[in-house]
Backbone:
């Protein structure tokens, strides 16, 4: 995480996400998947091909791509289908658009009810016997049972969570880095899924996205760094208020 | 040639060889790498620090951040939207330098009209318009937070102080000043060995000083897990930074 300053002098905290060897692996049509839209399987970071069975490696062989550590699905409309085997770059996103980031949260192991659900616990003194971090009552008398889904101690973390509506401030096309506003679930150097935002307020934010994606061998030559309009670039002189 | 009292010419004495002090070489040997360039120990990818350093070097090319240590007296002008001239100037002694990378900060302290004021500035904040070093002197400690409990005369600096002229010498002078403190209670127990402060003149009785030594942890200096050897990293980073700033 890094600070980034706007032209008006405000500071925002930014998370750096690196797009590392992403390739499209397979196209699944609407009828095949049984959903509302067709799907594209996308694979992430490269990994060693030796520790997986032959059947698992089939997908990668078809696409002609080294084995990927993480494979995720994206729901796509029919006009945005990409041929399997195309590499995906950070320039697929543009500064100023909003993005949802999904990742597995940091695993905390088996945790008690105060850390996991934020219960208040009991006082430390004034006669409490062996009861300081316990849940207390778990149900009423009339119910005569404990409702399913009752908040109780258990394994915390290591589940998929999404942070919605994160603004993209800057993109580095040379090293494939996306600078995303705020914090993102997951530990440092964990694998993360970045999607266009589905929030209703962010529908019109992206004016000219590269559609269906940014092709590196195409005619478009992008500069090394793409900034949002409001971001203070370090090549400019210091900010002054007129 | 000289003629001695005998009348015969004396044996030719060659003049003493001149000692050439190569000042350029001496200057090159002294390197200063700002402490925020050195990455902390952790599990982050060093590539992230490389990207951050590129930004820091870019900012330093446009805006000059002078070399300064804790104990220097600095004057900082920032852009302020609410000030009458849209800029505000603050003079103070640097008591602490914290943070790594772009978020590096330094705290300046001064006593203005009997009120102690500390302002924490970010080195790479674009609103800072100028940083001038008014007085160069290093102190005995890295962290001068104890000035809060010292007599106010040690933290007062004239706001219209002129920069003290100084030749481009090699060494930054170290001020071995021993500061006198206000009566206890202090904000932190500065006599305890964990702060390792050398710049205070403790006027406490011997029994209190001995009691403070009870909290000493003499095994810490031999702890191998706490060792962080940054010499090779510093070399590499120094070369990178000097290459970037040359252009």
Residues:
């Amino acid at each position: 995480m890094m600070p980034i300053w706007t032209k008006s002098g405000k500071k925002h905290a930014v998370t750096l996400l690196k797009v590392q060897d992403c390739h499209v692996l397979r196209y699944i049509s609407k009828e095949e998947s049984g959903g509302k839209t067709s799907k594209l399987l996308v694979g992430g970071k490269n990994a060693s091909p030796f520790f997986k069975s032959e059947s698992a490696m089939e997908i990668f062989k078809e696409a002609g791509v080294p084995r990927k550590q993480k494979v995720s699905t994206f729901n796509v409309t029919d006009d945005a289908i990409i041929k399997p085997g195309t590499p995906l770059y950070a320039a697929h996103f543009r500064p100023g658009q909003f993005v949802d980031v999904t990742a597995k949260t940091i695993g905390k192991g088996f945790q008690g009810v105060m850390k996991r659900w934020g219960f208040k616990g009991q006082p430390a003194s004034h006669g409490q016997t062996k009861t300081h971090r316990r849940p207390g009552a778990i149900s009423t008398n009339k119910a005569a049972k404990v409702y399913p889904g009752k908040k109780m101690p258990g394994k915390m973390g290591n589940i998929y969570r999404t942070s919605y509506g994160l603004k993209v401030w800057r993109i580095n096309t040379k090293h494939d880095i996306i600078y995303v506003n705020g914090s993102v679930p997951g530990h440092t150097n964990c694998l993360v899924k970045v999607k266009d935002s589905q929030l209703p307020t962010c529908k019109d934010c992206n004016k000219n996205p590269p559609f269906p994606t940014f092709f590196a061998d195409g005619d478009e030559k992008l500069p090394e760094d793409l900034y949002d309009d409001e971001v203070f670039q370090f090549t400019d002189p210091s900010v002054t208020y007129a | 040639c000289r003629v001695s009292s005998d009348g015969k010419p004396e044996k030719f004495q060659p003049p003493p060889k001149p000692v050439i002090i190569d000042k350029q070489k001496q200057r090159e040997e002294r390197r200063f790498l700002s402490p925020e360039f050195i990455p902390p120990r952790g599990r982050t990818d060093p590539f992230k620090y490389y990207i951050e350093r590129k930004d820091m070097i870019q900012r330093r090319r446009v805006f000059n951040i002078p070399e300064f240590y804790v104990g220097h007296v600095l004057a900082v002008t920032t852009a302020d939207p609410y000030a009458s001239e849209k800029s505000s100037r603050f003079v103070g002694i640097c008591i602490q330098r914290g943070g790594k990378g772009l978020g590096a900060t330094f705290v300046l302290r001064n006593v203005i009209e009997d009120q102690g004021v500390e302002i924490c500035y970010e080195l790479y904040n674009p609103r800072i318009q100028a940083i001038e070093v008014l007085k160069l002197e290093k102190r005995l400690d890295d962290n001068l937070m104890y000035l809060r409990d010292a007599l106010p005369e040690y933290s007062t600096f004239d706001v219209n102080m002129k920069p003290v002229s100084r030749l481009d010498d090699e060494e930054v002078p170290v001020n071995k000043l021993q500061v006198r403190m206000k009566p206890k209670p202090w904000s932190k127990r500065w006599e305890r060995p964990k702060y390792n402060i050398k710049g205070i003149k403790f006027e406490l009785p011997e029994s209190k000083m001995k009691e403070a030594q009870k909290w000493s942890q003499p095994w810490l200096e031999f702890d191998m897990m706490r060792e962080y050897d940054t010499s090779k990293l510093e070399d590499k980073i120094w070369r990178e930074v000097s290459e970037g700033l040359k252009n």
The longest strand of chain B covers residues 87-98. Helices of chain B lie at 23-29, 46-62, 206-212, 231-246. Chain B has four helices and seven strands.
